[in-house]
Amino acid sequence: MQSRRHHLKSLVLASMVATGTMTMSVAALAADTIKVGILHSLSGTMAISESVLKDTALMAIEEINKSGGVLGKKLEPVVVDPASNWPLFAEKTRQLITQDKVAVIFGCWTSVSRKSVLPVVEELNGLLFYPVQYEGEELSKNVFYTGAAPNQQAIPAVDYLMGKDGGSAKRWVLLGTDYVYPRTTNKILRAYLKSKGVKESDIMETYTPFGHSDYQTIVADIKKFSQGGKTAVVSTINGDSNVPFYKELGNAGIKAKDIPVMAFSVGEEELRGVNTKPLVGHLAAWNYFMSIKNPTNTAFIKSWSDYAKAKGIAGHKDKPLTNDPMEATYIGIHMWKQAAEKAKSVEVDKVIAAMGGQTFTAPSGITSKMDPNNHHLHKSVFIGEIKADGQFQVVWKTPGPVKAQPWSPFIPGNAGKPDAPAGKS
After folding, report:
1. How far apart are alpha carbons 126 and 92 in whole angstroms?
2. For 169, which of 1, 39, 125, 216 is 20 to 30 Å away at the CA?
3. Domain boundaries, the chain
């Protein structure tokens, strides 16, 4: 009789679950995992850069789960595609926090996408790890910036181009995609160049829309401008527009020794679809290159190669590449794990409090440290020359990690701005 009652009870429970009248089992399942959001464009103009960050995040999550998870629970990734649509980033963020109940979000590439997400994470007290170099001029209690601030990329790059090793540039082309990151970075660079005695007439500033593909006229204008003196191009072109831009450089026969191009958003992944032989010697400034030799990077590249082959990741299963935003993504996820374990909680305010001072041995070869105040990593800066195989040869680096300056001293009114976000726990 007792066994029959038990059997009937099991049938009733099964029926309730099947009809949706009981949510306890679903809630219990959710309680057994910690959900984390992955917010990257898997379609549209930015997919060329962002798709691989989604896969890097999934690889890091898989590694963490294999080593026991976080606080004894497995991480459950929730992947969404905001499709290079900036307002959709905000909608997807709200969905991740309010519906999916994620503990943290790893994502965004462009600053316009981050600016779209920012008011949502602040309103809902969410947590975003942002893995790409940016223009600074921002601090938020709810964001950790694992990419470079301008003084960790843009300023050292211009200093290099001004110096003898970089060609002693006197004239400057500031070429970018038309949105907040290039415009603000170039505002900083224009002020910096003028502080170094560069005249207004020696600066050319040009912008193109996202997805722009015809660079013939712009490249012709650059060649004409360069006739007035030793010229360098600083490129903040983002996304798939880099492919036609670099192709046009090759078509026009612009050599690095004549007009060097220094890119801030072109790494190994963006060069994948380009014939790099005509581009040998052109430059990029990052905080990591795949070609850096050290045991940590060797292990990182092997992990990514094995993962890409096992998962059949397009492009990478045959030619695995790593790049700077991949490294920044990887560092951010592992630092979040460390902070959650230090806090013994994944509650946002407790994790924020535990993040300051976190360190992680980075593939770049340094011990990355999260600044205890400004939510930015201390990062080394590397300048690399494009090689014929699409890799970079490091030609210059800082002696050690550089502390981020989120508020550029070259922007009027920034002096005295706080080095910690308002409302920081």
Report:
1. 13
2. 216
3. 2-146
DSSP 22-83: --HHHHHHHHTEEEEEEE--SSSTTHHHHHHHHHHHHHHHHHHHHTT-BTTBEEEEEEE--T
Q: How far apart are CA 412 and CA 407, in angstroms?
A: 10
Mean pLDDT of 62-89: 98
Give the H or E element holding residue 87. helix 86-94
Instruction: Please identify which residue in the block is written with the tokens 């003084």.
Output: 151
Q: Is the dihedral of CA 324, 326, 330, 333 positive or negative?
A: positive
Closest CA to 62 of 303, 328, 336, 332: 303
Q: Which helix (H) or strand (E) holds 168?
A: none
Residue closest to 363 by CA, chosen among 111, 56, 114: 56
pTM (two decimals) = 0.90
Residue 215 CA: distances (Å) to CA of 134, 322, 376, 382: 24, 27, 35, 28
400 token code pair: 């050690």
CB–CB of 193/158 below 8 Å?
A: yes
- In contact, 245 and 235? CB cutoff 8 Å: yes
pLDDT for 30 equals 53
Give pLDDT tens digits for 122-172.
Answer: 999 999 999 999 999 999 999 999 999 999 999 999 999 999 999 999 999
